[in-house]
Specification:
34% helix; alpha+beta; Double Stranded RNA Binding Domain; 155 residues
């Protein structure tokens, strides 16, 4: 019995294995796409991050938020108070499924002259995180200006 024989078990088995592998890959990709598309609802108790998440353009990348910057970091706010607000601004990462969330939260060190810069992870996705980047202009230990921007980073 050769492989070219129509009654050969190999002639029937090989296309079935190829079809099963193809359908299995489609199922894995469909489930992964569904998981990404449904979005992960970030969990946070931070009023700053809640306001950013509830803003009108929630899923828009690279947007400035001057109204929220002025609301949460008013001029004259003490640097220590601003740092405490930023330290509390955290999003609980989702539990890993087919990818592991990587938080990227940074605040510039205290005692360094100049702007207070920070990055806070806003939303976790398998292909990159959404961040809130900000800078607080300081003079004499007080906030004199604030900038907030949402950035979507790939990779």
């Amino acid at each position: 019995m050769s492989i070219t024989d129509p009654s050969s078990p190999r002639r029937v088995l090989v296309p079935r294995l190829v079809a099963a592998a193809f359908l299995g890959s489609i199922a894995v990709l469909a489930i992964a796409s569904w998981d990404v598309a449904r979005g992960r609802v970030p969990e946070t108790a931070s009023p700053l991050l809640l306001d950013v998440l509830n803003s009108k353009e929630d899923r828009t990348c690279t947007r400035d938020l001057p109204d929220l910057a002025a609301k949460h970091f008013p001029k004259g706010m003490a640097e220590a108070e601003a740092r405490a607000l930023l330290a509390a601004a955290r999003v609980t990462p989702p539990s890993p499924w087919f990818w592991t969330p990587k938080p990227e939260d940074r605040i510039s060190p205290a005692g360094v002259p100049g702007d207070l810069t920070f990055v806070r992870t806003l939303r976790y996705t398998p292909f990159g995180n959404h961040h809130v980047n900000g800078a607080l202009t300081l003079a004499d230990g007080k906030v004199t200006g604030a900038r907030l921007r949402v950035i979507c980073a790939l990779g």
